Amino acid sequence: MSINVKQLAAEKAVEYVEDGMKVGLGTGSTAYWAIRKLGERVSEGLKITTVATSRASEEQARELGIPLVAFSDIDSLDLTIDGADELDSSLQLIKGGGGALLREKIVASNSTRMIVIADEGKVVNTLGKFPLPVEIVPFAWEWTVAELAKLGCQPELRRNGEELYKTDNGNYIADCRFEAIDAAPKLALTIQNIPGVVDHGLFIGIAAMAIVGKLDGSIEIIEAQPKN
C-alpha cells in the first residue's frame, strides 16, 4: 500500500491547531489534505475561525463546515498551514505554483506562525529549479516581463489553455526559470522593486516550521533558526 506523503505531512500539521485559534487555510494539493483533516476535527467539536487564501480553499472549507470569517473581522491569525513548491533547510520557500502567492503571502505574513507542509521531493539544497512565479499587473506586461528577463531568468506568462492565466486578483503570472537562486533575499528585493510586479513567490523569513512527509512513512520537522 502506497503512502500519501502529502496527506501524512498535512495531517501532522493539523495536530498543532488548538481550540479557539484563528487559522489561515493554504492553497494547493497538500493544503487540500490539511483542510480536509480540519473539517474532520471541526465535525468532532474543534472550535476555530478561518480565512482562506483562494476561492478553491474557501469553497472546500465551506463544504466541510469549517467556519470562515471576513478579513475585516480579524486583525491577525494564530497559525497558517500551507504548502510550498520548493523549500530549503533555512525555510526559504518558492510558492505560487497554484497561482495564489499574493494572498498566501498576505495571510502568512499576518500569522503568528506559518507551518509549511510538503513531501520530501520539495526539499532542495538550492532554490530555483521550480520556476519562480511572479504576479504582475496586465498593464504593459511586456515591459515588466522584459525587466524580469534582465535578471538572468527565462520568464514565461502562465496560460490556462489558450488564454492567459489570471489570478483571483485579476493579474498575470510570469513563471521565471532561474535554475538556481543563490541569494534569495537579494533577488526578492530586486524583483519587488520592478514596476508592474505585484508580488513574487519567494517567501523569506516567513515560515516557522516545515513538516515533510517521506515515502518510508516518517516525518521530518525543520524549524526556523531564531533571529539574532
UniProtKB/TrEMBL annotation:
Keywords: Isomerase
CDD domains, A to Z: RPI_A
Binding site for substrate: 27-30, 82-85, 95-98, 122
Residues passing through the membrane, by range: none
Signal peptide: none
Pathway where it operates: Carbohydrate degradation; pentose phosphate pathway; D-ribose 5-phosphate from D-ribulose 5-phosphate (non-oxidative stage): step 1/1
EC number(s) on file: 5.3.1.6
Catalytic activity: aldehydo-D-ribose 5-phosphate = D-ribulose 5-phosphate
GO MF assignments: ribose-5-phosphate isomerase activity
Top-level class of the enzyme under EC nomenclature: isomerase
InterPro entries: NagB/RpiA_transferase-like, Ribose-5P_isomerase, Ribose5P_isomerase_typA_subgr, Ribose5P_isomerase_type_A
Catalytic residues (UniProt): 104
Family: Belongs to the ribose 5-phosphate isomerase family.
Role this protein plays: Catalyzes the reversible conversion of ribose-5-phosphate to ribulose 5-phosphate.
Complex formation: Homodimer.
Listed name of the protein: Ribose-5-phosphate isomerase A
Lineage summary: Bacteria, Bacillati, Bacillota, Bacilli, Bacillales
